[in-house]
Amino acid sequence: MCARIRLGAFWVERLEATPDVGLDCTLGPEGRCVPNMGGDWAAGHYGSTLWTDNPMWIGVGFEKTKPHSFHYNFTMVNEFDGYGACQFTAAAFGNFDADYIFSTYELRGSIDENGSILQPLFIDKPYE
Predict the structure, then answer these.
(1) Contacts (Cβ under 8 Å, ≥6 apart) of 14
(2) Are strands 2-7 and 70-79 parallel, antiparallel or unpaired?
(3) CA 22 to CA 32: how far, in whole Å?
(4) Chain centre to alpha carbon of residue 19
(5) DSSP 40
(6) What's phi and psi for 57, nearest 5 deg?
(7) Would you say 7 and 18 are in contact if contact means Cβ atoms under 8 Å apart?
(8) How far apart are CA 22 and CA 5, in angstroms?
(9) Please, what is the average pLDDT of the chain?
(10) pLDDT in tens, 61-115
(11) Terminal Cα-to-Cα distance of the chain (whole angstroms)
């Protein structure tokens, strides 16, 4: 699910986690979430259309096609008019021990007419 909100001179777009954090990846094969194109809806599996039908994931060119351990989201704030600044956060959340306490990895950055700046990778609870 993607939300687009206008706040003054800025567009804010936020994508909820894909797959939803309620999906327990540890129940999938080898403890991973599995994107499916077909009807295999075993534990830890979800529909690949969460990637292929979502304009935000299409726009940033990101799609998971193989089993993975994380839930991903993307947030962007962009100036409404003209060629302006864009700020973004790409995040991955992992729950490796099924306790619903998530590891968090975030990459934040900004892009404008002068180029891009990436902040250092933020990591919280890397072994959860």
Answers:
(1) 2, 3, 5, 73, 74, 75, 76
(2) unpaired
(3) 14
(4) 8
(5) -
(6) -65, -35
(7) no
(8) 25
(9) 83
(10) 999 999 999 999 998 887 666 555 788 899 999 998 888 899 999 999 988 778 8
(11) 25
